[in-house]
Amino acid sequence: MKTQRVLAAAQLANSIGDGAYLVTSALYFADVVGLSATEIGLGLTLGWAVGSVAGVPLGHLADRRGPRGVAVLLALTTAVAAGSFVFVRSFALFLLVACLYGTAQTGLSAARQALLAGLVEPARRTVVRAVLQSTLNGGMAVGAALGGVALAVGTRAGYMAVFTLDALSFLVAALVLLRLPAVRPAPAAPGPRLAVLRDRPYALVTAINAVMLFYMPLLSLVVPLWIAQRTSGPAWMVSVLLVLNTGSVLLFQVRVARRVRDLRDASTAVRRAGVVLFAACAVFALSPYGWVFLIAAGCLQVAGEMLLAAGAWEIGFGLAPDDRQGQYQGFFGTGTAVARMLGPAVLTTLVLDGGTVGWLLLGLAFMTAGAAMAPAVRWAQRSLDPAVT
After folding, report:
1. Is the pTM of this model over 0.70?
2. CB-CB contact of 374 with 266 (8 Å)
3. What residue spans of 214-333 are helical by DSSP H?
């Protein structure tokens, strides 16, 4: 339990900074730095793209050098990157810092997952991961509120305070992680150094999870634009949906995760997530006929999100060799980077231009991906252990 508390404390620290950063960064880069929307979008996309490529080698570094030390180093690097945003005055410098930020964040995530795998027994990893996710949501909510204050003030000093807070939050997270026991580095294994890049079953599982993760831009981007353009719902409905989502994860994510005990349970959870997300998309399509459909769709969306999270965590850990958790978690985490990079453009085009048909196509993609996870997991199990049939 001490390990869980320390991991949660580190997660809480940096999620507060992240929450403040997420709600203020776009306006800071536009209004204070003077970047265009295209430059901001391109810079952030390239930053996460570089990060997704760096995730596997940084995860491998965590395996070979010990995940605690690498996680601390990457948390400090993220702090430097976040603080460096206050010195950005040009697109070139913004691009450089965004790549550093995306690389450090992605590598930190992989190292943290390897650290969790090294300190927590397999039977408890998914539940502990759920606790960390709930903690992250709580911290993000607090950070978003602080970021809202900076937006209300609207001064350069207020924005600078946000980036300083984000940098300090990762510095605190690094210090907290030092309280964890060190995990012995895994010995060099025979075969290719980055074995995950040749693991086709795991690559398929990761790709399916990436499709499912396209739900991520829904509440932050697609639904707000949908409400404004296609419904008569009030603008504050966006806040209601975000509070509903965050509160539900805080209250129920751990309970949902406790029902996932093995890879079969995980595959079932992902399949159900696909069905529930399809239902959410169908109900979102009905929202022009009344705001009550927005609430119902929001409930379905967060239910699907929690089912997917619990199943994906178990799959990501369970199909990775114990001595290569870092590089495998780095690879599995590229799904998040892909969703962040491509999701906004794909979903806005599909839903805002396609309307009801677009919502249904999106839902069908979720349901199809969810159904494909079980056979993909079975293939990966056979590859990991030929005795599994």
Report:
1. yes
2. no
3. 217, 223-230, 237-258, 263-285, 291-318, 325-332
